[in-house]
Amino acid sequence: MGIEAAEPRPAAWAPGGAGDLLDVNVWLARAIPQHPHHAAARRYWEDLSAPQMCFCRVTMLALVRLLCQPKLMGKGVLDLAGAFEIYRRFAALPEVRFAPEPAGCEATLASLLRGGLPARLWTDAYLAAFAQAAGLRLVSFDADFDRFAGLNWLRLGAAGA
Questions:
Q1: pLDDT in tens, 135-154
Q2: This prediction's pTM
Q3: Upper half-sphere CA count for residue 1 (Cβ side, 13 Å)
């Protein structure tokens, strides 16, 4: 299984907004050409993404961890140094940045939890709160983000957005 860090966008690329916070499922699909959603992640990257695509600490750690999982990666499994290098190759692109946790993220997270969520959505709630507090659009293949009212988000499907 090969790994692919994206190339910088072509010069003709036209920005679509202020910034996107990508869920780890998008980063993973973009990094692995054999991933079932790779084509959709690539289409998003080339045609639908905002001028800046962001990692947060949670998505950065998750990408590195998943690239090291033999059950997921099979023969293409990476060690920690190799997986971290994939993150660093993404982070070095001019359209990718690491976004520190924004002010108000914890308060936003607390408000999202008031309605009651199953524990399995803890990380999703954090990513939704992060995106809202930072003024970013969240991008994911995961339909569970529909439950967060007021969240600016783009759901990708196997065929693209």
A1: 999 999 999 999 998 999 99
A2: 0.88
A3: 21
